[in-house]
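Listing S7. Sequence submitted for prediction.
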Amino acid sequence: MISYSIAKDFSPHPMGAEDGAKFRNLLMVWLSSGKPISIDLDGTCGYASSFLHAAFSGIKGDIAFISRTDPSLIKEIEQYRRENQKLEGKDFHIPTSV
């Protein structure tokens, strides 16, 4: 299993779609290993919904999310992951600059 803490291993201040796209790229590399992934969401100064959307929309794979401080984050992320059904067969572009 690949264990990852966003606060410790990526950034304590994950901001916006650009950071979300960078994190998504890392996540795609881990998923390509075929190993289960555990992502600890605690320890950041919060999450912008644009970060979560860019990082997790439509992502498939064996991923466990951990949040002891804000379990509602997991529900929000799972909602973004389910967007895959709506996006199947369509081009999906994450803006990297505003």
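Caption to Listing S7: primary sequence and predicted structure tokens for the chain studied. The CA atoms of residues 58 and 92 lie 9 Å apart. Helices lie at 6-9, 16-32, 49-56, 72-87.
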